[in-house]
Hints:
Strand 2 (40-43) and strand 3 (48-53) form a beta hairpin. With 207 residues, the chain is of the alpha/beta class. The strands form two sheets. Strands 2-3-1-4-11-5 form a six-stranded mixed beta sheet. The protein has a five-stranded mixed beta sheet with strand order 8-7-9-6-10. The protein is built from eight helices and eleven strands. 1-O-pyrophosphono-5-O-phosphono-alpha-D-ribofuranose is lined by residues 141-144, 157-164.
Amino acid sequence: MDKLLNIALPKGRLGEKVYAMFEAAGFDCPSIKEPGRKLIFENEATGVRYFWVKPSDVAIYVERGAADIGVAGKDILLEYEPDVYELHDLAIGKCRMAVAAKKDFRDNRARTLRVATKFTNIALKYYNSVGRDIDIIHLNGSIELAPILGLSDVIVDIVETGATLKENDLTVVEEIVPISARLIANKAGYRFKTEQINGLVKKMREM
Ligand code: PRP
């Protein structure tokens, strides 16, 4: 049994903030700061093995046990509903999931609403909860284009600063849910490494 705690970090700007929090909690791994393209780093002294993964893949590594713990956005957890424990809200990477449309948009409830999004499950659940029939148009990026080009009536997407909406003459119509980075754990991994993981969570709660 691997004694090191396997940790999936989201690659990118958020990941650097996340690593700084792990480091401050006593789970440091100095080699991770060396420049290069390496993806895996270990420190036997603190008992950790980190790997950089694409942010939207963190939950897959954790759910399948390739990582014991990881940090994933609440958007990904709501969209894919991975079978993991959600242990802590890191209160970073804050943004919101929202419905946005052109400024002159008026909802005509007599017609099916066309919704473009990367977050199909979140959009379906939201509109189901308000009893609105929709036609989902799944896109992989540049979602803001859809209402401008008449591909959809609205979009469901992440809004952080609001700059992307503003620069494309779109506006928020409804807020669906606030989003932030969450510490998640593999269910079996948590059973075997409870002490290490609980120690980390305790330190993070004190930050
Ligand atoms: C996200 C989101 C918006 C933008 C919102 O895209 O899809 O386009 O950020 O941020 P803002 O409110 O600060 O402008 P991201 O940059 O993650 O890339 P994507 O197009 O691949 O989703």
